């Protein structure tokens, strides 16, 4: 088993204006999250947000702590959101088993010491996508199925953004300190997500794109509304969105993405919208 972590630092919007393509990708794009028999983690200094992937194939995988956390175990001062984007699997949380099928979620509260990931079949392994944030209080661990999510339908075929939003780990569904996660599925013929765009200076966000068909891609837009930049992304890659940045995308096909947020505000509707005609 391999366990790898990387650290990303916060960047000023004034500095980002001067980044070329390579630097932009180095700072914000997260590649190679889903590698067989590995736990891969990225620790961002935006709200101390951890983005990760765990793919148990030959054996189970344990979520261990790593040096920047300065903790005895991973969830000593943290909470964790998990969404399975692969085959059937299960997670052992201090010995209690939680089965997760495709697109099902699990919230794991602070102070759980042992988190172990398992796949049901090695030929179709589970792929556990992870988001973790600092936590100040213990809340119960809870599984959330797709049916238990809060569902919102937005957009239209005419504007190429017809989509279904499933709020999985949000305060209307499960109690958390600050981590929030959900899933947005684009309908066939629609390619735009989060348009009209918005920012929310009270929260940062990470997008994880998946169900991107082979040989297709998503162009993710970021930056201040008057200074936008773009990053081309492949299947099962993530991108960090600073609080001052828009976070929107358009694909060469329809796709699905997971959004994860952290910050001082649990109000999903707390957004500062940007007119499409004002973007530059």
From TrEMBL:
Its EC number is 5.3.1.17. GO terms for biological process: D-galacturonate catabolic process; D-glucuronate catabolic process; pectin catabolic process. Pathway: Glycan metabolism; pectin degradation; 2-dehydro-3-deoxy-D-gluconate from pectin: step 4/5. Gene3D superfamilies: Jelly Rolls, pectin degrading enzyme 5-keto 4- deoxyuronate isomerase, domain 1. One of its GO terms (molecular function) is zinc ion binding. Binds 1 zinc ion per subunit. InterPro entries: KduI (IPR007045), KduI/IolB_isomerase (IPR021120), KduI_N (IPR027449), RmlC-like_jellyroll (IPR014710), RmlC_Cupin_sf (IPR011051). It catalyses: 5-dehydro-4-deoxy-D-glucuronate = 3-deoxy-D-glycero-2,5-hexodiulosonate. Keywords: Isomerase, Metal-binding, Zinc. Zn(2+) binds at residues 198, 200, 205, 247. The keyword Metal-binding applies. It comes from the Bacteria. Its cofactor is Zn(2+). NCBIfam families: PRK00924.1 (NF002091). Belongs to the KduI family. Catalyzes the isomerization of 5-dehydro-4-deoxy-D-glucuronate to 3-deoxy-D-glycero-2,5-hexodiulosonate. HAMAP family: KduI. This is 4-deoxy-L-threo-5-hexosulose-uronate ketol-isomerase. It comes from Flavobacterium sufflavum.
